[in-house]
Specification:
The protein has one domain (about 5-490). About 75% of the residues lie in helices and about 5% in strands. The protein contains 21 helices and two strands. Strand 1 and strand 2 form a beta hairpin.
Length: about 500
């Protein structure tokens, strides 16, 4: 049966909600509950891949659910960046669900049905964000995503989890109310149009000062992009179980943030306008500061998930910097980095969760010699680290190459230096972890020998997920062409 593109878009958004309903109905049957999650996750990915094939062949589609005012509707549309984001999110939904089965059961987590339910609802919100035809639609589902992920952040139910959840809501909802919503209203008042349009929605005679102020408000208002000083929600959310951390850092929340920023810059302002605004340089250097500051903070963290959280803040700023450069190379680099960082960072979090489940260790200082007992996990951590650093033979080397090329084209030599220094800092805070795992030193080996521990690899479903995402880091180096073709199409009129 051949489905129209319009029907595909709606199924992609609605099927995760069907998964959530199925999980609730089958809450007494864990095997069926998780089979529903996996089956629908695979189905959604297949549907998104079908849209990818249509986009590559030059076809687009649009569907409207309801019109609130003339020119203001809840509508969805396919374009290259939308499909790229949806492909990554839908594929990693499959892998994260597989990982969660092994993690949640082995860790004997409570409220697993609630976890899978809100996970599915979050994915529905992500798909709606991905295919939003206008800024109004995107804003609605951007906020739905915040609310849907809150129960996941507070999953443990402890006071620390509740406190982390409050910080999460306070910053994300606060930035939306104070900056994002007023910027959206200001755009509507000035342009009279919120539809994502190649070249932007503003008339040529729009005062540049207004646009400059609006751009700053959007950057600060899109709190999920974690630009400093609105980044603290991300480390605070690390109290959640590892599958939730993977969801936050690779599949849904942070990627929704940088995706929203990219859509706003490219299709609301237009690349040409952004390149000429007086506040663009300020935002570029704010992104550069975020890259370096968060990397330096990461180096000081002994807790593995905290170190990875600050690493994520740094990597998100790469994407923000790339699109704010307002060049083709920068846009390609940002688009590709959404995928490259997703595979690298989700692998690192999967490894952190595997270490916790098997060895109950959370601090890096406790992990000496662990690589000899969990070799697959530590090798995966090493490969994913290379991708985050941007070294061959991993996919991260391509996105960082194009980001550097963007700084070269615009002659932003300081920003180029920041990217290079940041990669050195990535080496400093990531590579010592697997090195410590495989080469602990005589003293650490002796101490480990005093109290032998029964440590082995993670449960099979989690281990399979780790292997898949690790292979993804490598495949994206040797076969980046499909991703590159999509990235080149971003911002090009169909």
């Amino acid at each position: 049966m051949n489905l129209s593109a319009e029907m595909l878009i709606q199924l992609i958004i609605l099927l995760p909600l069907a998964a959530a309903a199925g999980v609730l109905v089958m809450h007494r049957h864990p095997n069926i509950r998780e089979a529903i999650s996996l089956t629908i996750a695979v189905s959604v990915f297949i549907l998104v891949y079908t849209l990818y094939q249509q986009i590559i062949s030059g076809q687009t589609a649009m569907v409207t659910w309801t019109t609130i005012l003339p020119g203001l509707s809840i509508s969805f549309k396919t374009e290259a960046l939308s499909v790229l984001f949806a492909l990554i999110a839908s594929f990693l939904w499959i892998v994260t669900t597989l990982y969660a089965i092994g993690y949640m059961r082995s860790h004997e987590e409570q409220n697993q049905t609630r976890f899978y339910t809100f996970f599915a609802i979050s994915i529905a919100a992500v798909m709606a964000i991905a295919f939003s035809e206008n800024l109004f639609t995107l804003f609605i589902f951007y906020e739905v995503l915040t609310l849907a992920t809150y129960p996941l952040v507070t999953h443990a139910g402890t006071e620390k989890a509740q406190q982390g959840g409050r910080t999460y809501l306070r910053i994300l909802l606060g930035t939306s109310i104070v900056f994002f919503l007023p910027a959206l209203i200001g755009t509507w008042a000035i342009a009279g149009n919120l539809s994502f349009t190649v070249g932007g929605v503003f008339a040529d005679d729009t005062p540049s000062l207004w646009l400059a102020v609006l751009l700053v408000m959007f950057v600060f208002g899109i709190g999920k992009a974690a630009m400093m000083p609105f980044h603290r929600w991300l480390p605070a959310a690390m109290v959640a179980p590892t599958p939730v951390s993977a969801l936050l850092h690779a599949v849904a929340v942070v990627k929704a943030g940088v995706f929203t920023l990219m859509k706003t810059v490219v299709f609301i302002f237009g690349m040409d306008n952004v390149g000429e605004l007086i506040t663009t340089d300020f935002l570029l250097y704010l992104a550069a500061f975020t890259i370096l500051a968060s990397s330096l903070i990461a180096m000081r963290q002994d807790n593995l998930k905290a170190r990875l959280a600050y690493s994520t803040i740094s990597q998100l700023a790469y994407i923000s910097l790339g699109v704010l450069l307002a060049t083709e190379a920068g846009l390609i680099g940002s688009s590709m980095h959404i995928a490259m960082h997703a595979f690298g960072k989700i692998t690192l979090f999967f490894c952190a969760g595997a270490i916790l489940v098997v060895s109950h260790k959370t601090e890096i200082s406790q992990m000496a010699g662990l690589g000899r007992k969990m070799p697959i996990t530590m090798i995966a951590f090493f490969i994913a680290s290379l991708s985050i650093i941007g070294l061959p033979p991993t996919g991260g080397s391509w996105s960082k190459y194009y980001l550097l090329l963007g700084t070269l084209e615009t002659e932003h030599w300081v920003l180029m230096a920041v990217l290079m220094i940041s990669s050195l800092l990535n080496i400093a805070y990531l590579l010592p972890i697997p090195i410590r795992g495989f080469f602990p030193g005589k003293q650490a080996t002796s101490q480990a020998g005093d109290a032998p521990e029964k440590i082995q690899e993670a449960p099979l479903p989690a281990l399979i997920a780790i292997i898949i995402t690790t292979l993804g880091c490598l495949v994206l180096f040797f076969y980046p062409q499909p991703l590159f073709e999509l990235a080149k199409m971003v911002g090009v009129a169909s």
